[in-house]
Structures are given as C-alpha cells and as structure tokens.
Fold these 3 entries.
Entry 1:
Amino acid sequence: MGATLSTVAGTAGTTSTTVVFTASSTLGSAISMIQVTNTSSNNVTVSVRVSPSGTLYYLASALTIPPNTSLGVLSGTLNLQNGGTVVIFSNTASSIDYVVSALNYS
C-alpha cells in the first residue's frame, strides 16, 4: 500500500453541494488538516460537510469567523472511504479561502 500527499486550496462559494476534495478512489484518504480563512472585512459564516461514504454530515455548521481570521476546522485525522468528499461553503461569496491536506492511499 502506497500513499501520496495532496493539498487542495481555493475560495469557497455559497453552494452547499460543491465538492472541494474527493478521497482516493482506491483505498480512501486520511485528511490531516482543514483550514478556513475569512479574507473579507466583515464577519462571515462557514460550514464544512463531509461524506465518508455517501451521506453528507456537518463537521462544522455556520461558524462565524471574524474578519481576517483563520480557523482550523479539524482537530485530528479524518479518514474518508474511497470516493468520500469534503464540501466547504459560506454565506458570502469569495470571502473564505480554504486549504485541505490529506494522504491518499493506493
């Protein structure tokens, strides 16, 4: 079994179904970090949903993040089965940047 490190980064939208990370289709992935940053000058709410195996569950729901502040959403490792997903969205377009770091198993 091999593993490769992957990091994805981007700007969250306002749609609660837009996938920002998909686990390895072979043996899944172990997410070690999910960080979100409010890049605006106003309070913004952000939600993070995960789908370990098909159904979306909230990891964080409508967290208020002050202006120019970062938040680590994950406090440990999150294991996703093959094809599992992470969705990140906010109440204000183009205001939340995210970084997701994971080991993908193959």
Note: The beta strands are 3-11, 19-22, 29-38, 44-51, 57-65, 70-72, 78-80, 85-90, 96-105.
Entry 2:
Amino acid sequence: MEGAIAAELLPAETRGLGYGVLGSVNGVGDLFSSVVVGLLWTHVSVAAGLAYAAALSLLGAALILRVR
C-alpha cells in the first residue's frame, strides 16, 4: 500500500528516489521497532511488547488515512 501511495504523491522524475527513501526508512523502522519490542518482551512482559506493536500499527494506519 505504501508503494501505491508513494506513486500517487511523487512526481515521475523523483519517484525512484522516493522508493529508495521509503525502503530505507522502512528498514530502519523495522529494525528499531523489533529491538524495542524485543526489549519490552524480555524485560517487561509479553503484553507490553504486543501493546507497543499494536499502538504503532494503529498510529501508522491513522497516518495513512490522513494523508489520503
């Protein structure tokens, strides 16, 4: 879905750069989120890790809806 939204929002001449930035941001975000969830899971509780992941998923969905 993100790729489709990027295609709609970016001009054709910068679309390749936009996809590269999107992939980089997704990769760094995935790494950071995995580390945080792992730390919460290990040091706090399983529920804390899952709650963090669920909250960020809902926030991401809300941001996508707002941009559209």
Note: The chain is about 85% helix and 0% strand.
Entry 3:
Amino acid sequence: MTTECNAESFLFQPLGRREVVARFVRRITGASQRQLTYWDATGLLKPSGKDTGHRRYTFPDVVAAKTIIALRQKGCSLQQIRRAVEHLRKCYPHDAGPDALASLTLLTDGKTVYMLTNARQVMDVVSKQTVWWIVNVGKLILEARQAMQTLPLEWVEPVTVRHAAYRLRVTHDTDEGGYVVQCVELPGAIEQGETPDAAIENGRAAIDSVLAFLAKRADAHRTRRVKHSA
C-alpha cells in the first residue's frame, strides 16, 4: 500500500483531551452500537481513550468513525476503509484552524491513500485514476468539533464498587472548571476532579468510603443489640 501525507495537513488542534462514551459517538456519527462493537472487535476502530471499564473515544476516534460511515455510504469495502483509517490516524491533522481544514480531503482507490489540502492537488491525483473514493475530512472534523461542543454538561456514568452497580451523576462545573460527581443511590458520596476520569475515580472512592461507614455503623448497631439482649 502506498500512502502520502502532505505536510500542510498537520494543521488542526483537536478538542482538548475530551473523551466520550459510545452513546455520544453514536449521536455524533450516526453509527449504531452494533457497528461500534464490530469495529472494535475487528480492529477497524478501537477506542483509544483511557480504559475505565467502558469504551471511551477520543476526538480523532470520532473523526475516524465519521470517515468510516462516509466511505461505507460511498460503497467502499471494509478492507479498503481499513487502509484509509490507518492512514488517517497516521496523518491526523493536529494543528489547524477552520481555513486550513476547509479543503482537507482524503482520497483512496483502495490501495493508495492520499490526504490533500487544496483542489489542485485533488485534481492532479484524480486525473491519474478513474475510480476514487473521496471524503472531505476537513468538513467531518469541523462537524465533529461542533457536535462535541454541544454535548451535555451532565450525564450519568455507571460504575461498580464492591461488586455492586452504582450510578454517578457527572456535572461539568462551568464556573470553577473541573467536574463534580454524586452517587444517585448514595447521595452522600460526592467528589470532584479536574477531568471526568479523575472525578469518576474519586467518586468510586467516595462510594467505597460511604459503604465502609454504613457497614461499620451496622456492625456497631448489631453489637449494641447483642449486649442489650444479653
């Protein structure tokens, strides 16, 4: 396989280090849960976010998912899409503004993959071959960025503590920054963190502390009952 990366294509600043769970990826890309599961299992698109027991997708992952959907709609085979996605990950544009993205285009004939930044480059390549799959990656990036910015600032994250299931309500503090979490089942378990992952991890610890306190109080109550009955 031949690939080409134009130096000008490394021109986009991704949306921070924000990671999203599968339900938000489905909302942004239109992919189904079945597709995301299949892509993960086959290695076509493995979520590269931190492993917290749930699939977490980074911004480049979301762009890759949108690219897969676009190529699939154009009739590109999964094998050909795999080559294109591998190239996209290798040549992902990490530092650019909207102007540079406007003409960023991915082209593939199934064997060769190009990422080009202006119409002349695109025409030069297309003139050499009769069949090309063409995707305006820059447009997909801008769409994904806009969609990511409109995601809710509050959501419920399922967690497991002491082999039991709990739910953490995660809220982005727009005034102070960072994130606050509170357990739905144990409202006394409240914590915060600079990132969603940090807040959720602290929330797990808070749940564990509340459970330990409740267990200790239950033991003390049983001890008093035994002494009283004696």
Note: The two ends are 82 Å apart (CA to CA).
